[in-house]
Request: fold
Amino acid sequence: MALKQFKAESKRLLDLMINSIYTNKEIFLREIISNASDAIDKLHFTSLTDSNASREFEIRIDVDKNARTLTVSDNGVGMSEKELETNLGTIAKSGTLDFKKKNEKVDGGAEGLIGQFGVGFYSCFMVADEVTVLSKKYGEDVAHKWTSAGVSGYEITEAERETSGTTVTLVLKADDEDVKYSDYLEEYTIMRLVKFYSDYIRYPIRMQVERSVPAEDGKTAEKETVIETLNSMTPIWKRRKSEVKTEDYESFYMEKFGDYNKPARIITANIEGAVNYACLLFIPSEPPYDFYTKAFKKGLQLYSSGVLIMDNCEKLLPDYLGFVRGVVDSSDLSLNISREMLQQDRQLTEIAKSLEKKILSELSKWLKTEREEYEKFFTKFGMTLKIGAYEGFGTKIPQLKDLFVYYSTSGKFVTLKEYVGSMKEGQSDIYYGAGTDASSLRSLPQVTAVTAKGYDVLLMTDNVDEFVVKLMGEYDGKKLKSVSSEDLGIETEEEKKASAEKADSSKALLEEFKNALGTNVTEVRLSNMLGDYPSGLTAKGELSIEMAKVLSAMPGNEKIRAQYVLELNPAHPMFALAEKLMGEDKAKFGRLAVLLFTEAMLTVGINPENPAEFVKLINEFIR
Ligand code: ADP
Reply:
């Protein structure tokens, strides 16, 4: 029989395939095994209406090192001569797709068939010089052999095969400097590839392997050949939750994702919607060491009917949920990342949307039912959620704001809802202080002034906190107010009147302070919120001191600074000293102004530019 030519466009595609599409040559085994599994599925499916077809289904792998061949056989539906011709002679002609269409009306029938697009088989040519497909169609008497050495063409001849099914034999390419093709003849490599890509194929994948067993004398080891099943078949995420022990989920997670710690939370779901999928997700108990660095890669493992498509599919998770690990399995996805990429993309986007919703609702449930555990989680991963709220101009705030817990002056973590729920009579705003740590924040005079009224203050210590708060603006109609705001709204009418009078009479002094400090400050004013402190520092405008600190720490932003407002405490002895010096000793007054300004900077955690100069100043005034 003469050599037949591949269809023109197939030839081109074949060339392209071999040389470029799959950089990952090893996936050829996954492709052949998936085809075998599909073929068994088809027979299995037919056998539901045909009792003769019942038999033990299996996929066999055999190697012959001398002949350099790797063989994969199945006892599935097989192919007729015509099918060999159409399915393997034309690239992009997917028999699976045809079959699926024909059986669409049968309930649940062809669901779960893996391949959809006809390019998978040709990946064999990435590793083989010659490929033979010996196949006998179920219900037919004659078998046929399809042979091809690549682009040159293919040949189909009559052949012998005992039962229905297909045997694919690859003659591996000779090893070259880049690739050691003979690795694919090694037991170890095959076992590894099957475990990695095809562990959850639901038929046994068997291979003859050599095992050492102790001889009868108990010492010398003897070699024995046994048939071993290489895959575990049922994926844990496909099993019913009630049938799986928590320990099993935990060890699956620890093994698969290389974590020494048990997961903090396990999420399982079987979603039926625009795209159907099952997922098994984990929230780690500790962030990976590189979690808050650029090196960290988010992503979930993506399976299509138990076959691994992508080890780390980034698309499935928004950045702010990047800490979630796990697997997603959808029978709606095709195995090949191919021309149908666009369609796959749409399906992935659907799954990602649905996953995001699921994870957020799980977090919310966690917050309500296991508060302590949730707080632990939030201290470790809360920052990414907040970053999620900040990014995209706050579009995610509605979904996220109720998941935030803030440590507060009450000594506990509170949600915004809880804060508002326990606001004192007469309190109209939500108060927060932003800084680097809770204990320094607690001793800020402005915080003390607010707590003295009996109001709780949220102590915000994450860099991103204030940025989020500014975007939120309010919660449940209550303004979020920084304790360093000019008008905290906690003074009584009388206090306000007294302050206004004092401000009037101190006008000249404030002016002198401003002159002495020059461009360091935008404004100098009086404050009754400073307690035991002579001075305090806040900012004017949108950019708070904390926000400026965060921004200026980023490369290229070193010059960013808040517009400082120096606040002076009129009840402090230093204030009286300033009034005295203003008339008597201008130079000394200037030094006092610098002292009070530097002190104010220190209380909000900004170090003086010249510490030695500052120490000199302190000593001048405590003498
Ligand atoms: P896909 O699997 O994406 O459809 P392939 O190129 O891998 O594309 O295979 C082309 C077609 O050849 C399959 O759709 C199937 O009809 C047929 N085929 C391949 N391998 C087998 C097999 N082991 N048994 C029966 N049919 C097969």
User: Anything to note?
Assistant: The first strand starts at residue 59 and ends at 64. Residues 238 and 278 are 7 Å apart (CA to CA). The pocket of adenosine-5'-diphosphate is lined by residues 31, 35-36, 39, 74, 76-79, 87-88, 94-96, 115-121, 166, 336 (CB under 6 Å). Confidence is low (pLDDT under 50) at residues 92-97, 103-118.
